[in-house]
Amino acid sequence: MDLAIQIEKLEKEIQAYFKSDSSGHDIYHLKRVMNIALHIQEKEGGDRTVIGIAALLHDVHRIMQNETGCFCLPKDSLDNIKEIIDKSDIILSRKQIDMVLHCIEYHEEYSFSKSGKTVSDIETLILQDADNLDAIGAIGVGRTMTYGATLGIPIWNPDINDEKKTFDEGDKEESTIHHFYNKLFKLKDNMNTSTAKAIAQKRHEFMEQFVEEFLAEWEGKR
Q: Which domain holds residue 197?
């Protein structure tokens, strides 16, 4: 089955599922990550079908988290993802389904997390890169502010200057600006592929300029 047709079927299946998200993990985030991932795949290789489908389904655990109010890991969503794939009536081999689930389970690994990176297959590495690219740059700034508001954390707390040595998704930030230092500024050097590294550079520079301007305005200097 043509990948475009499979993606169309999946989009119809998950549209309502992600409709209520207001944390920056909505259907548009999924589609951006998918488009970035497929762009990287053209340069770096890997199973294009697996990469496209994994990208479109990678944040099901975020919706589960919104619904339950409890932190969820990507691996917690794998049964739901298998059900979505079955309902969508797309055609994948058993190996491809296993690869999709593997990509999603390990897509939130970071070199600066406590456990570090443990996978090396190109499909997962591309999904990691695509998801991380959508977390930085202009869109990343907007998503970060939205996510912080959803969690109810302050924009900035200047009384806390400590930067975390390691980061994991379950960590609670002191403020949204702290999130830039604890995670987002580190993503440029966390990219796996040369294609993603090239894209990340400009997005990283934009974020640096934003935070510099934010802090200057906070102090009333501009």
A: 3-218
pLDDT band (50, 70, 90) for residue 151? confident
- Interval 80-111: pLDDT, tens: 999 999 999 999 999 999 999 999 999 999 99
| DSSP secondary structure letters along 150-208 | HHT--S--TT--PPPSS--TTPPPSSHHHHHHHTGGGSGGG--SHHHHHHHHHHHHHHH
The total of structural domains in the chain comes to: 1
For position 57, which CATH number holds? 1.10.3210.50
Q: How far apart are CA 194 and CA 75, in angstroms?
A: 27
d(CA 49, CA 46): 9
